[in-house]
Design brief:
Blueprint: H1 2-14, H2 20-32, H3 34-52, H4 56-72, H5 78-95, H6 97-104, H7 109-116, H8 133-143, H9 147-158, H10 165-178, H11 182-194, H12 201-214, H13 218-231, H14 236-245
Helix pairs in contact: 1-3, 2-3, 3-5, 4-5, 7-12, 8-9, 9-10, 10-11, 10-12, 11-12, 12-13, 13-14
């Protein structure tokens, strides 16, 4: 049980729970006991790495290994176990999505969506017809990620049949997507894609792929991303990376 006690003691130290005489005794021991100092260092590196990469499940598995060690009376030193965890973390960093998916039970689609959802840049402000105040206001909401108000104004602008209507439709769809109104966004993106020679079809396909990921429909997302890659359309390099990250 000595190693188990050391394990709990080190964890209490790293969590800042040791105070007064307990803290002094701990620090004195790390100075005088080189093996214990190495144990503290190994555990600290492992735990900090686990927390940095958000792998709470890995931390739990480390605890499970320790429990099985006690239950089965298979003796591995805590130091060896922590070094094993450090090696595993190193593999996690190198192997990227595969091990992440293995640990988490699949891709975290909401995180994938959030990591890849970015605003399409403003190409309208400098081309506004006669200083269209509604367009300026809509774009201001959009840039500040007030998607609820932006979507309302972009829809009104879309009904005005302006010369820049194709771009306004795209911003409208993105605003709906940002406002979590995926049904409305999907209709707009599909209309853009199906419209013959629409210059923003590639952009709409990208945001539709993100929408599909947000809905946790990886199979359809793969189809859309593969199409983007094949056509070398908007964000095809990002599409390649994203395709690798999906289950």
């Amino acid at each position: 049980m000595k190693n188990d006690n050391n394990f709990e003691l080190i964890e209490a130290y790293l969590e800042g729970k040791l105070t007064g005489e307990e803290l002094k005794a701990f620090e004195k021991r790390t100075e005088s006991d080189s093996d214990f100092a190495s144990l503290v260092q190994d555990y600290s590196i492992a735990i900090k790495s686990i927390e940095e990469f958000g792998k709470q499940k890995l931390k739990n598995r480390l605890r499970k290994i320790h429990f099985e060690e006690i239950t089965n009376k298979t003796r591995f030193g805590r130091r060896e176990l922590l070094k094993l965890a450090a090696v595993f973390i190193g593999l996690l960093i190198v192997s990227g999505p595969f091990l992440y998916n293995y640990l988490s039970g699949g891709s975290n689609y909401q995180n994938l969506y959030a990591d890849n959802f970015a605003l399409y840049p403003d190409i309208l402000s400098q081309r506004s017809e006669n200083g269209n105040l509604m367009l300026d206001e809509a774009m201001s909401y959009y840039k500040n990620r007030d998607f609820e108000n932006a979507s309302v104004l972009f829809q009104k602008l879309d009904s005005q049949n302006l010369s820049m209507g194709s771009a306004i439709k795209l911003y409208s769809g993105i605003s709906y997507l940002g406002a979590e109104k995926t049904d409305e966004a999907e209709i707009i993106f599909r209309n853009i894609i199906n419209e013959k020679e629409n210059p923003f079809a590639g952009q709409a396909n990208w945001y539709l792929a993100l929408l599909t990921i947000k809905r946790e429909n990886p199979e359809y997302a793969k189809i859309l991303l593969a199409e983007i890659i094949q056509n070398k359309s908007y964000n095809h390099a990002k599409a390649t990376k994203l395709l690798d990250e999906i289950d």
